[in-house]
Here is the input.
Amino acid sequence: MRITDIRELTVPLEGNIANALVNFSEHTVSLVAVFTDVVRQGKPLVGLAFDSIGRFAQGGLLRERFIPRLLAAPPADLLTDDGTAFDAARALKVMMRNEKPGGHGDRAAAVGALELALWDLNAKLRDEPACHTIARHFGRTAADGVHVYAAGGYYYPGEDNVRRLSDELAGYRDQGFSAFKIKIGGASLSQDMERVHAALEMAGGGSNLAVDANGRFDLPTALEYAEQLKPLELRWYEEVGDPLDFELNRLVIEGYGGRVATGENLFSTADVRNLLRFGGMRRGIDVFQMDAGLAYGLTEYTNMLALMEAAGYDRAQAHPHGGHLINLHIATGLGLGGCEAYPGVFQPFGGYPPGCAVGGGLVRPTDAPGFGLEAKQELAPSLRQLLA
Ligand code: MG
Here is the structure.
């Protein structure tokens, strides 16, 4: 068994929405396809994945470094000992040849997309959903669904944001969601609190509403918000300051007291180690949001989880960033605390096909083999272009 071709395609995200720091209208995602010499129903078996949402595509890095390394590797260097599956950890080593440690930027997402495509391939080789392949590989049984919350509440440039926010959350509620997350930090504190109170009315209580500052705040601003948020007993207060300012995270936890969430912009096990050492994250309370697609893939992600568990944290505290099918399979396969859902945003990658809903705020993957990206209608035009 060997890889015969690897393709990548830059796909733009749809929608003009913003959080406290970035507008997503210019954002792109790398969709990748790994072709093999295995033939199923007259066609080569292809592994598909992408590098999650929220950064930019990495076409240059993929074409110049990581795709050539995989294509040049002897087939046995990418396979398990018995040759019946791709070995993602070995492939990761091949891709990272000649790369220095540290500085985990866009390369972590480029490698993540390719590594995840090998998990899609392994699942398709067994003709099963990826959550089962992932669970088996790590000695587990896939969960029967995971808790999701509707992540939205972005800023819409030039519109009445409070009214729009209420309408948006009402729409999610009608779709069956009972927990929500909205953005803060893109307006003044008083405007943001108006938004939070409008959202609370829809959520029916603080435990159903999280807020996300997207790394915007310095310590004084973070604590100013914390003082007003604290009495509301929110679900969590997310990415309050710069994701690599672990001291700030610790001081916010001390000053705020409620649950915080962070980690979506930590792309390596080494960064997570520093968060555990210096960030003040509390066992059994605070939330870790590292995202395999932005962080070298599932091999690195499970190393992060192992580090957390060795330090006394529970995998139920892991809620990956990125409300899409790949993370749904990962959260289900690894028995994580939950994951995001993007019911209204980030097409064509965000959200789940209708067959995934099980009600009560739970979703689970369908029976489609692999990550099931072929079943996501919004992705079909991009897949046609990539596979043509
Ligand atoms: Mg976030």
